[in-house]
Amino acid sequence: MKILLVHPRRRDKYKRTGSIKAYIPPLTLPVLAGLTPKNIDIELCDESVDDVDFNTDADLIGITGITSQINRGYEIADTFRKKGKKVIMGGIHVSAMPREAKDHADSILIGEAEDLWETIIEDFRNNRLKEEYMADTYTDFKKLIIPRYDLLKLNRYRSSSGTNIPRLPLQTTRGCPFNCKFCSVTKFWGPKIRMKPLENVEKELLRIRSLGTNRIFFTDDNFIANISYTKKLLELLKEYDFSWICQVSTNIYQHEDLIAKMSKAGCSAVYMGIETFSEENLENINKRFNKMVDYNKLFLLLNKYNIRATASMIIGLDGDTKESLEEMVRLLIRLRVSYAQFYLLVILPGTQLREEYLKENRIIDNNWDHQNGTVVTFQPKSFQVEELQDYCWALYNKFYSYESIIRRIFTLANLKGGVNSIFVPLRSNLYFLKKLKSRLHPIEN
Ligand code: B12
Ligand code: SF4
After folding, report:
1. What pTM did the predictor assign?
2. How far is the CA of 2 from the centre of ligand 2 (A)?
3. Residue ranges per domain, the chain?
4. Residue 16's pLDDT is what?
5. HEC string for the chain
6. 352 CA → ligand 2 middle, Å
7. In CATH, which of 3.40.390, 2.60.40, 3.40.50, 1.10.3470 is domain 2-134?
8. Low-confidence residues of the chain: pLDDT under 50
9. 159-437: CATH number
């Protein structure tokens, strides 16, 4: 028996639909492949770097996708089904919109796959595949699963390290207690933080190293969600020579010792969901813990330990005005932020935010392709739609202007990081500037 697993490409208004070179492979396919019994043939297709083989001899086709990929996922599913293949779909969008997905798939999985994937395969083999599988408890996350990165065409991803193996994704925790209104993580992964046993993480690290890279992206929503676990993980990472990046919450500024340990253990950059500096907005989106943050201290500390920081911002929240957004960019330039990403508000299925916008009749674009942060899909409060769309470009142009890049690079220079503290952010800032000149959002691959 053979299974083909597909990660559909993303499509949007501003970009070609052709092949996009991605930097980091998706974790979903290697994890599902790692869960698959050894006696089953498995093939992975990440459409960002590969074409789907619609003439495959696979018996079962599995398709994943977040909301912005799902239309393409449905297109792939429909094509395979016309050819007589059985299709199963899963992932965060399908879990939020199961009825919609059932129109395109023979079977769907709602929730995590860890405890059900083998049963699904067994059912398929015995010709009793169900229309719907539902993971009614969260997996305990204790099972050792070695992601099968080796089944991806690793040499097709972009790599800036001089090898032809890209940075690889690894997840050590799941769940988030905060339930921000715009986010689907708490609903999908649960409010409790589940941690992978460190001995399993170590085996995954060794597997990554054996593939010829020492570069990792920890895809955890918050790498410091459980600080005592993080510290143990850092001890482990210190034993190996990995260079890694991760996502952290802004309260990291209260833990200088942790930042120092991260730096020592190979952390080169962090992403942070700052979202907005407006207290009113933070209240409205239920991200209250960002209200109390001392941003000066935060960026000063990250810079002190030579960790580059990306500030991820949301554009189009109800409290946003031209003045407040301009002030936001000025502040980002003043703080020691290496990079900023401006995501137009994404209104995801299954979130409280979507319910509110639907109730207020403010969703103006129902094309899932556009829920990717580059398109205004809702009626904003203080802007016209086109105006907000253009304004987002203007914010980018301001943040990545030559003048602010130069200013930023000087504030980022530090003795400890040596020439790299200038060279690395300069190179990336100029790369984003080049993208903007070709009317490509820096958040796109
Ligand atoms: C890492 C990450 C990224 C990375 C991806 C890089 C990479 N190559 O890994 C980057 C930073 C690029 C990114 C970008 C964006 N992201 Co993101 N990201 C994540 C994050 C934190 C982890 C993803 C991950 O690694 N998961 C681990 C894998 C194993 O989990 P999984 O895919 O869900 O698969 C499991 C199950 O779902 C199931 N399953 C999944 N598919 C299938 C298929 C079948 C057949 C079966 C049986 C089972 C199954 O089995 C797996 C094991 O249990 C998630 C949050 C989260 N905790 O999931 C957000 C998340 C996926 N991102 C999200 C979003 C919205 C975005 C952005 C639009 C930015 C934004 N505004 O938030 C952009 C996308 C830009 C675009 N053009 O579309 C949303 C998606 C929600 C949705 N409904 O679409 C999430 C869930 C966070 C959120 N805010 O809710 N992201
Ligand atoms: S935005 Fe971050 S903190 Fe808020 S619920 Fe999502 S993962 Fe948790």
Report:
1. 0.96
2. 37
3. 2-134, 159-437
4. 45
5. CEEEEEECCCCCCCCCCCCCCCCCCCCHHHHHHHHCCCCCEEEEEECCCCCCCCCCCCCEEEECCCHHHHHHHHHHHHHHHHCCCEEEECCHHHHHCHHHHHCCCCEEEECCCCCCHHHHHHHHHCCCCCCEEECCCCCCCCCCCCCCHHHCCHHHCCCCCCCCCCCEEECCEECCCCCCCCCCHHHHHCCCCEECCHHHHHHHHHHHHHCCCCEEEECCCCCCCCHHHHHHHHHHHHCCCCEEEEECCHHHHHCHHHHHHHHHCCEEEEEEEEECCCHHHHHHCCCHHHCCCCHHHHHHHHHHCCCEEEEEEEECCCCCCHHHHHHHHHHHHHCCCCEEEEEECCCCCCCHHHHHHHHCCCECCCCHHHCCCCCCCECCCCCCHHHHHHHHHHHHHHHCCHHHHHHHHHHHCCCCCCCHHHHHHHHHHHHHHHHHHCCCCCCCC
6. 13
7. 3.40.50
8. 14-19
9. 3.80.30.20
